C-alpha cells in the first residue's frame, strides 16, 4: 500500500477517524490491527512470516534475555541475521560462489526468491532493541502489545525512520489527544512529502531510467542531467516518504525523529552522514562502529572501523556488487577526509560553499553505483559523462520548475520551518488548506500511475 495511492488515502482516513473515536485504552490495539492490515495488503504470507519473527524476538527477550549475557544476545542476533541472509542475501551469495568458480548446483535455486517488504528495516529495529536490553537501557518488562506496536507501527514500517526502543517505548503510554498544532504541522509534512515524491521524484524518474538503462548510448549532456537528476530523485523520493510518515504519525499523536536535514548543503562527508538517513547513520554508529572499537584504537584502526561500517552499510542497502562499491566509496571518503583534516589544516579554511560543491559531487559519483543495475552499467555511465556523440535526451516541459522546487524545499528543510509570530502562524493555518487543494489538483493532473518508493526494495 503506497503512501501516494488512493488505497492508502482511504485506509488512513478510516484509521484516523476510528483511532480518535476510540477510548485511549484501545487505541494501541487498534493501531496494531491497522498495521497488520497495512502490511498484509501487500502479502498475507509474509505478514505471517513477519509476525512470527517478531513473536520469536519477544519470546527470547521475555524468557531468555539477561542483561550483560553476551552468549544469549548472540543467539537472538544470529536468528535475525540468518532470517535477513536467507531472504535478502542468499541469491547474492550464490552469485559470488559462481563468480569465484565454486560449484553451487547442490544449493536451492533462487529464481523464485522474493524479498519480504521492509525486512532490512524491521531487522535493524529488532537488533537494536535486543542490544539496548543487553546494555541495560530497559529496567522494566516491555509488554507484547507495546513491542508489537514498536515494530509494526505502520507509518514508518516500510522505509523508516528506524526507531529506537528507548525513544518510542518510553513515550508510548503518554495519553494522546487530538492537538491542532500537531494536525497543522502533520498535514504540512504530508503535503510537502507528496510534492517531493509525486511532483518531483516521479516526474524526473522516466528520463533518468532511460539513460541508466542504456548507459553510454546517450550524449554527455544526457548523462550529466541524469547524474544530477538521480541525486534529486532519491532525495525527494526517500525524504518525501519520511515526511509523509512523520506527518501521519503526528496526526496520530506520535512524533517520529527527522531523517533528513538538508544533506546536499553539507560541507564535509561527515556532515553529510549527520544529515542523510539520520536514523540509519546513527544506528550504524551506535550498534556497529562503536562496538568495533570506534576511534579508540588510533588513526589506522579508526579508519578500518569506518570503512567496515560503511561497507556493511552499503551491503545493507542491497545484495549487489554496486551497493558494496557504494559503501566502500563512502568509507574511503570518510577515511581520506579524516586524514586531510589531521594533516592538511589549510583545507579547513576553504569556503563552505566550495566544500559543499565538492562533497555534493563526490556523493553524486557514489549515487551512480547506487542506481546502476551492475558494475558494468555504472562504469559505462561514468564514461558516458564525456561522450562526444550519442542519442540526445528530450527533457519534459517544466523540468526547470521541478529543479527550482527541489532547491526551495531543500533550503526550507536545511533552515527549518520556524513559525514565531502570530501573523505567520495564521498565514500557515489558512495557507495549508489552499496549498493542500492546489497540490492535490496538481498531483491528480500530473500522475499517470503510482510509482513505488525507491527504499521499498530495501
Automatic annotation (TrEMBL):
Protein name: MBOAT family protein
KW Hydrolase (keyword) present: no
Record membrane topology: Multi-pass membrane protein
This protein's record includes keyword Membrane: yes
Organism: Leptospira semungkisensis
Swiss-Prot/TrEMBL keywords: Acyltransferase, Cell membrane, Membrane, Transferase, Transmembrane, Transmembrane helix
Family, per entry: Belongs to the membrane-bound acyltransferase family.
Location of the protein in the cell: Cell membrane
Molecular function as annotated in GO: acyltransferase activity
Amino acid at each position: 500500500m503506497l503512501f501516494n495511492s488512493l488505497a492508502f488515502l482511504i485506509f488512513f482516513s478510516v484509521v484516523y477517524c476510528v483511532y480518535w473515536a476510540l477510548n485511549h485504552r484501545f487505541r494501541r490495539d487498534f493501531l496494531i490491527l491497522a498495521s497488520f492490515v497495512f502490511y498484509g495488503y501487500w502479502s498475507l504470507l509474509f505478514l505471517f512470516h513477519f509476525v512470527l519473527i517478531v513473536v520469536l524476538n519477544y519470546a527470547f527477550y521475555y524468557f531468555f534475555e539477561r542483561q550483560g549475557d553476551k552468549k544469549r544476545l548472540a543467539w537472538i542476533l544470529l536468528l535475525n541475521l540468518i532470517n535477513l541472509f536467507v531472504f535478502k542475501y542468499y541469491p547474492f551469495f550464490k552469485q559470488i560462489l559462481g563468480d569465484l568458480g565454486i560449484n553451487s548446483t547442490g544449493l536451492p535455486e533462487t529464481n523464485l526468491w522474493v524479498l519480504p517488504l521492509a525486512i532490512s528495516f524491521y531487522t535493524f529495529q529488532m537488533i537494536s532493541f535486543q542490544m539496548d536490553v543487553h546494555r541495560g537501557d530497559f529496567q522494566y518488562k516491555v509488554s507484547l502489545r507495546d513491542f508489537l506496536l514498536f515494530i509494526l507501527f505502520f507509518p514508518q514500517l516500510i522505509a523508516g525512520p528506524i526507531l529506537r526502543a528507548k525513544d518510542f517505548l518510553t513515550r508510548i503510554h503518554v495519553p494522546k489527544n487530538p492537538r491542532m498544532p500537531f494536525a497543522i504541522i502533520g498535514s504540512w509534512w504530508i503535503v510537502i512529502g507528496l510534492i517531493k515524491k509525486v511532483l518531483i521524484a516521479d516526474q524526473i524518474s522516466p528520463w533518468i531510467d532511460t539513460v541508466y538503462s542504456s548507459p553510454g548510448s546517450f550524449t554527455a549532456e544526457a548523462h550529466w542531467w541524469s547524474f544530477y537528476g538521480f541525486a534529486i530523485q532519491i532525495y525527494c523520493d526517500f525524504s518525501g516518504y519520511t515526511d509523509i510518515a512523520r506527518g501521519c504519525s503526528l496526526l496520530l499523536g506520535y512524533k517520529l525523529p527527522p531523517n533528513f536535514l538538508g544533506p546536499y548543503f553539507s560541507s564535509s562527508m561527515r556532515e553529510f552522514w549527520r544529515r542523510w538517513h539520520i536514523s540509519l547513520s546513527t544506528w550504524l554508529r551506535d550498534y556497529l562502529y562503536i562496538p568495533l572499537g570506534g576511534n579508540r584504537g588510533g588513526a589506522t584502526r579508526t579508519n578500518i572501523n569506518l570503512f567496515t561500517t560503511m561497507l556493511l552499510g552499503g551491503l545493507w542497502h542491497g545484495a549487489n556488487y554496486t551497493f558494496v562499491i557504494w559503501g566502500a566509496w563512502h568509507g574511503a571518503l570518510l577515511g581520506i577526509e579524516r586524514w586531510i583534516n589531521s594533516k592538511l589544516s589549510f583545507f579547513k579554511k576553504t569556503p563552505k560553499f566550495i566544500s559543499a560543491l565538492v562533497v555534493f559531487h563526490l556523493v553524486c559519483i557514489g549515487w551512480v553505483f547506487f542506481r546502476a543495475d551492475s558494475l558494468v552499467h555504472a562504469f559505462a555511465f561514468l564514461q558516458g559523462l564525456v561522450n562526444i556523440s550519442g542519442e540526445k535526451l528530450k527533457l519534459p516541459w517544466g523540468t526547470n520548475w521541478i529543479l527550482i522546487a527541489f532547491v526551495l524545499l531543500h533550503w526550507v528543510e536545511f533552515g527549518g520551518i520556524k513559525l514565531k509570530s502570530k501573523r505567520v502562524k495564521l498565514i500557515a493555518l489558512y495557507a495549508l488548506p489552499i496549498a493542500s487543494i492546489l497540490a492535490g489538483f496538481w498531483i491528480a493532473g500530473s500522475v499517470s500511475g503510482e510509482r513505488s518508493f525507491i527504499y521499498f526494495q530495501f
